[in-house]
């Protein structure tokens, strides 16, 4: 794999590229209107170039311990090359994908296609939802907290969540549910999101789910340990999930974990909750797809709150966080909400990225 950039500076270059781009987007929001044909043409062009740049930057990164699970996947990849038998205990689709590349191609192509499967669904899903305004949604997804981590470390989980977004933007019910079913064989944790999405398609009550989210906070504070044991005995926890719920050996994991009630993560999650309340309840924004996205976010995040103290709490939170950018930006790309909407979008973009830059880069 290429070594155009020193691996020690890989995330430094990435985050500062986003920083410069975000500043330009913020400044540009003051100079043109959102609906301006010049602005939309420029943003569509920039969006495509940006998609290609991050695809190759992430997809051709070197195999290195700094990218966490990438090293583990590469060991499994090399074992297949050496003749190891197909691992039937793992999710079938992803394992078949890995096995095929090990037998026919190489690790470079494998990790590049992994990046493609992570980034491309977001690009095309936002194109489908927002057409000429898609750049803003795609960019907000890319600058989201945890986007980089699930592009380079939690690879399989990241692919599953991106494909989930792509699936729920399909018009055909058959295509949508076929994709959602297939994703379960990439990363089984997406089962929670699929079940929640199925529930909200039948019971699409945002106010109820907002109330549920708030109720889960005192429940977690009072009954946290009991709730964690309940999830352990519920039947959905595989061995890795049990390790997270029971607590893991920090030395073996190679990191120092912050365990306890994560008020910082809860504060971050509340941004999506506030956006859901503000646009749907206060502004009366009516859009079925948006309601489904918001309600899936609210329930998924509420479940995370119940197990907020566990090791790697961020991995549970990610099962809702990957939707947050859409929860925030969707109504502003579909309807006139504010007088100077382009400035509002630019301001939200820089504030949203500020959190990512601080918590994902500066304070790590």
What does this structure look like?
The chain is mainly α and 364 residues long. 71% of the residues lie in helices and 0% in strands. It contains 18 helices and no strands. The radius of gyration is 20 Å and the shape is globular. The model is unreliable at 235-239 and 248-257 (pLDDT under 50).
What percentage of amino acids are in beta strands?
under 5%
The total count of helices amounts to: 18
User: Helicity level, as a percent range?
Assistant: over 70%
Mean pLDDT: 87
List how many beta strands DSSP finds: 0
Report how far apart the termini are.
26 Å
The residue ranges in which pLDDT falls below 50 over 5 or more consecutive positions are 235-239, 248-257
Secondary-structure element string = HHHHHHHHHHHHHHHHHH
Shape: globular
Structural class: mainly alpha
Sheet with most strands = none
Radius of gyration: 20 Å
